[in-house]
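Notes continue from the previous slide.

Worked example: a multi-chain complex. Inputs as given:
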Amino acid sequence: MSAQPASVRLARPPRAGPLRERREAALVRDAQRGSSDALEELFRRHWRRAHRAAFLVVGDSTAAEDIAQESFLAAVRALDRFDRRRPFGPWLHRIAVNRAIDFARARALRGEASLREPAEGVEPDRDGLSDELRLALLELTPEHRAVVVLRHLLGYTPGQIAEILDLPRGTVNSRLRRGLDRLRPELERGAP
Amino acid sequence: MKRDRELERALRDVPVPEETEAEERAWSVVRTAYAERGPAPPAHRIRRVALAIAAGAVALAIGLSPAGAKVGDLVSEMVGVGEPDARPALRSLPAAGELLVESEQGPWIVREDGSKRLLGDYGEATWSPHGLFVAVAEGRELIAVDPAGEVRWTHPAPARVSDPRWSPSGFRIAYRSGDDLRVIAGDGSDDRLVARDVAPVAAAWRPIGDSKLAAAPGGVGGHVLTYAPGDDGVRTVDVDTGRRVPTTRADRRRLEAPVSGEAEDRALSPDGSQVARLEHVGARDRLIVTGVGGGGSVLFSARGRLTGPTWSPDGHWLLVGWPAADQWLFIEVDRPRHVVPYDRISEQFDPGDPRGAAFPRVSGWILPRR
């Protein structure tokens, strides 16, 4: 069980630089040709962000692990027909976040309460903001959570989010605004 | 901006239980799946197959198109048919209405703008006539839910429920419970047996207009149901009185080619004037539309199985599934070279299935009147 702050281990937000894209395209090409090293590099680059995004949308670490894992499995199944001109990250995030939304909706439909599990085995954040923020996030609908997570964890623009979630851009903007309005008190409470 | 940065930092810092362990567990599974997927086919072969499929589709369209049609138009209109990533996701329906789709996860409603909602972990599903409710089967229960997925009522049946069908009036639902045919009121009350030991075929309601036309002096109500008894033949009853009524040719046709989405390989158009059916010819499937009086034309042909078909509420479009290409094809009936393909259908309706997503089944396309 690691107590290392998660932010230290997380990969940096996606950059749109051509070098990174070229490298990633080469990794996808090599993985398509059977290189497990290339696949592992892709996995390591993207796992934590996909896993964290799923966790923040569903609020349940077991489900988040399943969702992120199944998203990678879906990516592996579809790898041979993946268009290498497209970036891998948004493709994977599209799968993971949409699955997370569907999972959260399905659970809500089944009448299950949101799981607000404590982050056992992890050192509490220094100011306690993160966990409170996570709980505040769970007050939002899955659709609103997904938009906030795509924007502020994964770093996508509203236009890109609209593309990922198949939503009109105006809907993305309004969900972002409503989500941030709801989270603002928690952020202000944590501000110095 | 400062708030944005704080939020970004906070989201990155939210502790995720067993983050490292989860990563290693997942990598182990993903690595195994990757090792078991077999050698990748050469990219040029995939491209060649896709091009062959697309070329075949275009050639067929050319063969079926009116004289003088421009080849360039055909190619541009059919681009993406059979190709991976034709369209990354279902964005919108080409005609007004909403789809009801059955998947391994349960029934989904797909709205005209392409947005969709999972109704819950249920089995078969059927629209109410105006799209206000969906009747779903789940084991021995018949359940009515609204389009938001909220359960309105639940009825425990004597045996496993299958083939629920809402009457055109909205006031009755016919369903099979084991080998019995039963009818229940639209509010979940007054469940009654109609017939025992019926064939495993969904019963078909007579449209309200036809019921009035066929009304005998003795009075035939608005709830006339045609079904297949287990001893062969076809039988029609007024379920409100329990009296048998003569089976018309239209009743028989509705039982054999039910309304859109209710059969595996054929569907009656909304106005009842045409039947769309799938025909298996060797390794290919053909979508054929015939008039009630006979005749017909091939709208589309593809290598592998096609599923559906389902008519749009306005009768101008047909939706067929093409599992081998993992696509839905929307085909304009009067302009069959106009095909709108959507790709990766299984994944969209069966997210999270580690065994691999199953191809979903469309069980209805209606114009809701909410």
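Summary box: Residues 39-79, 84-88, 211-219 of chain B have pLDDT under 50 and may be disordered. The first strand of chain B starts at residue 98 and ends at 103.
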